[in-house]
Amino acid sequence: MTPMKFIVKYFSEIAIKSKPVRRRFVARLAGNLRDVLLEIDPAVRVERQWDRLRVETALEDAAGIARLVGAMRDISGISYILEVVEYPLPALEEIVDRVLPVYAGRLAGRHFAVRCKRNGSHAFTSIDVERVVGRALLERSGAAGVRLVRPDVTVDLEIKRKTLFVIGRRHRGPGGYPVGSLDPVLSMISGGFDSTVASYLTMKRGMRTHFLFFNLGGRDHEVGVKEVALYLWQRYGCRQRVLFISVPFEEVVAELLGKIEDSHMGVILKRMMLRVADRLAEDLEIDALVTGECVAQVSSQTLRNLSVIDRATDRLVLRPLIATDKEEIVRTATAIGTGEFAANMPEYCGVISVNPTTRARLGRVEAQEKNFDMTILDRAIAGARQTRIDRLADEELEAGQVEVLSVPLAGSTVIDIRHPDEADLAPLELPVPVLRIPFYELHTKAADLAPATYMLYCGKGVMSRLHASHLLSAGHLDVKVYAP
Q: What does CATH list as the number for 394-482?
């Protein structure tokens, strides 16, 4: 059995780094690829080369290959993933014999163009290859003709010294830097469109991104934010070890409502969050905080107010979305799979000002804060819970609330709560009924389920345990976890 091969092309900004930095980035990218792909193919091989990575898999089934490609497309640091068939370089006239098995089925009745990239010393040019192969394909494939501009099919070839690569498919990666290649950050996440996209962008840029949630009240909101953070980490985090930190902020909100002028509550709430985030970041030796704020999207996000908010900390505050339109943010959230989370996220508004200021003055804000009992922030920090994100469900398991079974129970219904993208790649086939309810919809749809035994399935077991614990606490369904 011949292993299927992929060529992984680095993001262009990696290629222009100095040699030591490039080696470090490429080593991190190779490690990230291995960590992610080993869960799909335990025998996968990743080989480092100066200008590319080679990935070999013995998987043959279409679903397995699709999962492998899908996973690579989400790994930052990658520009392209090429599905290749590799040959010793034949004579120029014989190249078409290597191309036809890959492309013949796609060319019949269609217009095509041949594109060749060549590296090394040869007796022919890239244009020679394109002309010779194009002429032979036109004679032997049943193609409708050659079209150099916007062809129906592009026959993609690479020649690297004495090797010919026939590229069957070309998949675009996300670009960016490998996660973990840059310093870590602490991202303040609420589960909405903005904070999830901001967290994704820092991960894509190579920063190991820890998640910080301020609980303004309500278990539903906390469970929802845990889920979206877990989703981001599982899909884009490359298994880097990160924390999910939950800070109880109900007492802070109560103090604001009782001691602060209505017009300044939004600005001062953000300053209190930054103060807490700053102290947590100091303990974790993290140099930068991340927020999803965008200029003028809401009253607290005018330039004046953001300037006043930032004066609460000396730590760097990153705002990846600062000049981004809301429509663009929503489009990005949809593209990365967090749009439905945000649309279904249970929200809890801690403070709502009737006439919020858009031009806060630092002196007046600081005068207002003198009425605030700052020991409440100390209690919030003391009550913060730090959990490794891959262990978010451990408390439920240790408490014995969630029963986890490796086989589906007779008479039960399995609910596949995976994201639709993942469920489509590997449909669940079982001898019991299977419902597909994405976990970001399960909270709202659970009330409509008939009384019965349900087993939640999410592939990795963490998301299903979180939801099972939450549904059990609601008390109206018999819920278990199916984790084969």
A: 3.40.250.10
